[in-house]
Amino acid sequence: MDPITAKTEVLRYDELLSIGINEADPITFRVPKSTFASVSLVFRRMIENKTYLEGSTGIVKFPEDDEDAWRPFLAWLTTPYDEDFCTDMICQDTTKAMELIVFADKYNVQGLHQIAIRHLENTFGTLDHSLLEMAFTRTSLNNPVRDLLVKRLVEDRSFDLDECNKWDHLSCTGFHHTLQKYTLVRRESIYACRKRRKSQLGARQQYRRRGMVNASS
User: Fold this and answer.
1) pLDDT tens-digit map of 19-60
2) Whole-number Å distance between alpha carbons of 171 and 151
3) What residue numbers bound the domain in which 146 lies?
4) Which of 95, 128, 159, 184, CA to CA, is 20 to 30 A from 4?
5) Is residue 45 a part of any domain in this protein?
6) Is 92 contained in some domain?
7) Is residue 155 within 8 Å of residue 149, measured between CB atoms?
8) Residue 208 lies in a domain
């Protein structure tokens, strides 16, 4: 049985679990229990630990989360083929991809995290600086999205290395350390490029002088 068919069969016969979202404006979702537990060690431990269940209702509660954060995850959870999910939910929208990364980072959902990271890697154009804000204020310290976005920022030719004071409010998040790492690489690259061009220019000038000497003799 191929993986897509296998996942479809599991979803079809999986026991349902109730998920309670948002304490202020509560909403309940029904999710396939074993599939839900399989995508995250955090979720599995919550299900196994009865203290997370609300009395006899068996609802696992996430009071601090809102509906918008969960709907894309639930769509991915019940979509047999990951590429269909990508096409329907996050393509052409880097903000949605970043929100999924934040969610996946919070609950350690590796499969979802990889899809969203891959989407950002394959997205071209000017970097939306709000993505940097989200990455450095709402993800864990070692999340690869931080390096990915800073590298993209530094590689942008319109980015001025000497005007970084606009990011001072992110100083406690590890942003400047990551920025320094990639700006150092860029400065070294620029220096090497200038040195190479200077050497090439010198070689051309020397060649011209030789030609002028030969012509005069």
Assistant:
1) 889 888 889 999 988 889 999 999 988 888 766 665 556 688
2) 17
3) 127-216
4) 95
5) no
6) no
7) no
8) yes
